Amino acid sequence: MQRSQLIIFTDLDGTLLDHHSYSWQAARLALQQLKTQLVPLILCTSKTAAEVSELHQELELSTPYIVENGAAIILPDAKDPAHFFGKSYTELIDFVQLLRENKGYRFSGFNDFSVADVASETGLDLPQAKLAKQRLCSEPIRWDDGKDALAEFQRDLAKYDLQLLRGGRFYHILSKAADKGTALRWLLKHYPSPEKRNWYSVALGDGPNDQSMLEAADLAVVIPSASGLSPEPKNTTIIRAKEQGPNGWNQTVLEILKYKE
Length: 261
Ligand SMILES: [Mg+2]
Hints:
Elements: E1 5-10, H1 28-36, E2 41-43, H2 49-58, E3 65-67, E4 72-74, E5 82-84, H3 89-103, E6 107-109, H4 115-122, H5 126-132, E7 138-143, H6 147-159, E8 162-166, E9 171-175, H7 180-190, E10 199-205, H8 211-216, E11 219-222, E12 237-240, H9 245-260
Parallel strand pairs: 1-2, 1-10, 10-11, 11-12
Antiparallel strand pairs: 3-4, 4-5, 6-7, 7-9, 8-9
Helix pairs in contact: 1-9, 4-5
The chain binds magnesium ion.
Residues 11, 13-15, 168, 206-207 line the site of magnesium ion (MG).
């Protein structure tokens, strides 16, 4: 029987990256070990491809990465460099704006925000905020309306095959067909094409929007959340990291690598 090979999927904000400083430095040792042991690391985030691209280079990765909460997968060396799940950004924005006009919902999204607004809402600097606005197929929004309106908004989105996910800072509107778990499963099937591997998948995340990714993996690592809301994965083996962000990430990944040997 072919021995299974380890592959790691990770959320970024609040997981590999510190919730406040966006730094991954505390995970340096584990990242180095993954490289030495040739364990593929797949970034899986609500961030845009434009934002992740820089980090991907900084971490010297050549693996695919999952962006906008699973709505798109970027395949750096493939003939088709991206794979999409669901509607385009223009379609999504047109519908959501019409819905807001017709029903009077109060919310603001990245499409409404200037680069400076995005910077002040997120704590990103201006160049990063500009990259965060370059979206392919999902929209983060700040909800300024009540709970009942939110439930109704969700029902309206569902009628148009859209869904609302709760992230660390924002709600994210994206196609129903898209989530981090679906993207993870797609990659396990297609990566690295055409060679088939017997993967043992580990996923690390800290937020409710990581739930589907954690449940789709063989082993789920829950990183304690800095924003208060944690994922509660079911039907999978779970490790709960002791510390938040890249510290917890570093400790847990080193443990998993030790166990693998
Ligand atoms: Mg997160």
